Amino acid sequence: MTDTDPLNAFFKAGEAPAVDHDFRAGVMEAVARRRLRIELAVRTATAALIFLAAAILAPALGPAISLVAGQLSTFLLALAVVGIIGFSGNWLSTHAQQLSTRRFF
Amino acid sequence: MKQGSDAVLVKAAKSGSDAAFARLVDRYQQPVRSFLYRVCANQADADDIAQETFLAAWTAMATLGSASKLKSWLFGIAWRKAKGQARSAARAKVRETSWMSERETQDDPTTEMKIAMEQALAQLPPDQRAAVALCLAGDWTHGDAAKVLDMPLGTVKSHVTRGRARLTEILGVE
Q: Cβ of A16 under 8 Å from any chain B Cβ?
């Protein structure tokens, strides 16, 4: 449409504002809410999978733990368990954050 | 001067940069909202749809191929969402129209022109209104508008021609 188009003035009158910080803030707030929902969903699913895996593997892990406990002192056993939990938690937490950027929803 | 090209901002946004995505919102909110103002004929609904458009864009940013297609991609999302709300927008238009007839007349010429255009656009069919909004009010070519609106090129040209004629008739301009 050229500037000489008589409709030009009418269309210009109905334009949205060139700068609107409130609108941008509303969009970014919605983005933050969606990101939070994604992270919560991923962490919930991760926790459920860990619980399920532990429940399934418990019968098999029991004898293995007993065998290891027989050869290690209680202190070393506790250290090994804490280390495994800490490493797993850190790995899962890091990957959960990365999954939240995948924007599945 | 543009601070950061679209390609740079899109790449950063895809990597998770909120600042880059906010910059894209700033850059495209006016054309997207202006388009939706003309298509929806209800400014409140148009702004809601505009926000949903950018939210959908953030969610699906990874699917955007080339940054050069960003504008048409955004408008395509906006048009599909506007069509999806067409029925509820039509019901709201009835309420809005009745309210508009009761409100005091504004002396501001710009406001009068804005109202006149809103009422004129409301008389066009939705597809024709969208074609007019892109090709007459915006700087879109018929071909690009056809891609955004998912219409044949000939249909877009027809809509623009008939839409222009109808608007000039309603508004009383030549």
A: yes
